[in-house]
Each structure stands twice: as C-alpha cells, then as structure tokens.
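Sample entry (374 residues):
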Amino acid sequence: MNSLDKQHRHDRRNERGSVLAISTLGMLAFLLATGLCVDVGHLYLVKTELQNAADAAALAGASALNSSSLGITKAKQRAETVMNNYEFNKKGVKVQDGVVEFAVNLAGPYMGAGSAQTVADKIRFIRVKTPAAPTKVFFASMVIGSSRDVTANATAGMSVPLTSVCDFLPVSVVDYGTPIMPGNVYTFRSGPSNHVTPGNYQILAVAGRGGSDVRVGLASGVDDCAEPGEEYAVDTKPGVTSGPVRAGINTRFDDYQGGHVNPTDHPPDTNIKENITYEDYVEGLKTQAPSHPGVEGRRVVVIPIIKESEYDNGRGVVRFNRFGLFFLRKKVGNGNGGDLEAEYIKDHTMVGRGGVGTGAGAAEGLLAKPVLYQ
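Predicted structure, serialized as tokens:
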C-alpha cells in the first residue's frame, strides 16, 4: 500500500461523525422553525379571539348611542358587559376604565365617557380596546421571548342615515301641513269620535287586514321594510280596532291581557313609567321597572307620516311621505279609547334593521344602525 492510499484513509477517518453533527444541527433548526410556527399560530389564535371580543363589545356599545348623556353611560356599560362575559381559555376578559372611548368623528379625537357626556348629542362612534392578554410562548422563547402581550381594538358607531326602515308600526301620523315639532305630541290612531276621513282611524294594513296582524305589528313592529316615496303603497284598515291596538301597544308597558301576546315574544321596555317625557326617559329621571325582563328602547318607535291628502273614505291606498321617531308616553286605556298619541323626538337613534340607498333620510337623517368600522 503506497503512502497516498494511507493518507487518503487517514483523511476519511478524520471526517467520521460529521454527517451526524450536520443532521443534528439540521434537526434542531427544523424543530425550532416548527416550534416558531406553532407559537406564532397560537398568538394569531389569541389575537382572533380577542378581536372577536372587541368587535362584539364595540357593536354592543354602539347600539346604545342615542344622543343623550345616559346613552354614553349605557354604551360604556354594554361594551364592558359583553367584554367581561367573553371567555378565553375559560377566563373572562376584564375591561377596566380607559379602554372604552367615544368620538364625534371616526378619525377622532377619542375621549372618555365623562368628556363624551358633555357633547353627547354629537357622539357617533365608540372604540374598545381589550386589556393586554399575556400569552405564553412554548417553543420559540429564545427567539421571541417567554411570553407576548396580545391586544385587540375595534371601532363601531352609527351608520350613515338610513333611507329605508324596518319594524315600523302599522299606524300613521297625519301631516296636516303644519310642521311636526320635537317635544310635541301627535295622534297615531284616532279615537271613535275623531278620524282623518270617514272610516279611517290611521291604522294601516301593512302585514294583513285582520286584527291579529295589527296586534302583532304594534307589539313588535311589522316584519317589513319600506322607503318613503311613491313606490311603497299600503292599504288603510278602516275601524278603530281598539282591542288589538290596546293589546299590541301595552306589551311595551308590561301589560299582557287577553292571552294573545306574551312577554317572551314581545318583551316590555326596561322603563314602564307612564306620563313621562322623552327627556325623562333617556336621562333616567323617572323610572319604573317591569315585572318581566325588559328590553331598552321598546317605547321608542318608528311611525310612518302620511299626508292628509292621501286618505280617502273607507279603505284606500296611502303612500309614506316620511318616517318619524316617536316616544310612547302611556299605554292604551280600556274601552274604545280616544286618540292615541306619542311624542315626536328628533335625536340620532339606533335601530336594529334598515337599509342605506341613494334616497333621502327616512326620518330626517336621524335613524342609523350599529356598524363595525375598524
């Protein structure tokens, strides 16, 4: 064996174990990359969960905005309640002061609830930020640390003014040519001795012509949407229809007589105090709690406003001139009853359903629905 072969064999013996070392390093790098992917995926999952909580809290808060200082307070409470009830890893996400803010414009500046109450009539947006959620890093701690704080924020608020409205009452306020003013009380169903034309007492057959349709429509709003103008026409319903009217309206005051309606399908308002003004209502100045679980805003209703000239004798077809936002001051009394009245209000108010198109604002640009913006 020559010296060259001996040297070659000696070099190969010196290289023994290098493949094992390279394989070990490669495996460590692969495991580190896999661990990093797992940890990053976990962080994204936490972020998604927190974002869902922030979105839900912002929308809940936005639903309470109503141009009043009490609306600011309730918006903050609703946002905090939703956030605090939200569970992640079986632990509640606790909201503390300073993480719910309000603004007049989407771009801000944002302010706390106390400052927002001084300009409550202009507030349209709410921003919610979740507290930092420390999230443990399992595999890639040497790269990104042993834990990371994850937060999320969301902004919701009033939509642009609605041009079509849903869930309105199947009755009407008549426009006799004089301005309808905020704070004034207007008739939405005439009593037996007072009618807009012979046979017409301002009741509309939107959902159907029967008394049960009127009852359910007044209890919950009709399951229909409409836009003011010539395209939407509806039949009037002749007759006073006192029983169904009383049963439907009075659900909002926690009064269920006759067995045709119930508090589960048609819950009362959270404040059933009668003979109060809308200002008393929105500022919480005079209150009375119902015996059944209530829903806020049940006494604030959308009613079509129809020109007097639309009405003919007996059953006829009318078209909505516009919608108005009204406050029910009291429930309907027994018997045939007299004129049923509600207070006209002119505040920006959130409703559950409605559409946005190219037409004019359905209720003078005052109606909006909660929208998630960011």
